[in-house]
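User: Just a sanity check before I run the rest of the batch. Below are the structure tokens for the first item. I only need the designed sequence back.
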């Protein structure tokens, strides 16, 4: 988190390559998005969705170019989910299958749409939700930062209400814990950092087959 910018990236392409890709994405996004908070004139004049889109394009190009220059990093990439808070508005953006949820009035709602093969089949009505959960193709994502020269993010503008709780997470969490379990754990009366620990520990106990990352952000009154 930095100046109202919250990011979760889940790298892929081997341990070292995935870590490089996710690190490049975070560094580039923070550098470009923080220009607005720093009060730089040109950045202040750009509509927020366009600024987010430009930052994602730049991060994608940084990863893609790095992989092109180093054969050992070929094919590396990263998923991305982010939240940008400014005054009384929130922008959520994603590429891949890392997700953002919102908890409002103790009810959980998924904000983002997964860019994955099975989820897109579900949305088209070609696969049931239960079949998607069992599919051997559930790990196949259709968009990622850095794997292609261009990428298209989803960007959502939200008017938060006081008390809204936003959760950004990698698929390592949602693969192990269903929405009902996540909803019950988010309702626990603990500091946000402690709730994150509870969520990660629960996902580990449920299998912990992938990287598990979780960030919680609460809207103030």
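Assistant: Here's the designed sequence for the first item:
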């Amino acid at each position: 988190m930095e100046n109202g910018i919250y990011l979760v990236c889940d790298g892929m392409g081997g341990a070292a390559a995935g870590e490089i890709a996710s690190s490049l994405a975070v560094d580039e996004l923070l550098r470009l998005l923080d220009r607005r908070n720093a009060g730089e004139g040109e950045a202040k004049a750009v509509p927020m969705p366009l600024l987010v889109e430009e930052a994602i394009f730049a991060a994608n190009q940084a990863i893609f170019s790095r992989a092109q220059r180093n054969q050992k990093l070929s094919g590396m990439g990263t998923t991305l989910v982010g939240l940008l808070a400014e005054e009384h508005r929130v922008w959520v953006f994603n590429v891949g299958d890392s997700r953002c949820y919102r908890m409002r009035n103790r009810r959980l709602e998924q904000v983002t749409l997964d860019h994955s093969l099975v989820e897109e089949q579900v949305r088209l009505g070609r696969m049931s939700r239960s079949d998607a959960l069992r599919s051997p193709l559930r790990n196949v994502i259709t968009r990622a930062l850095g794997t292609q020269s261009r990428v298209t993010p989803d960007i959502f503008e939200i008017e938060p209400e006081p008390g809204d709780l936003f959760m950004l997470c990698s698929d390592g969490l949602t693969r192990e814990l269903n929405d009902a379990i996540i909803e019950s754990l988010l309702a626990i009366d603990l500091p946000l950092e402690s709730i994150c620990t509870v969520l990660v520990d629960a996902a580990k106990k449920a299998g912990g087959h992938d990287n598990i990352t979780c960030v919680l952000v609460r809207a103030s009154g």
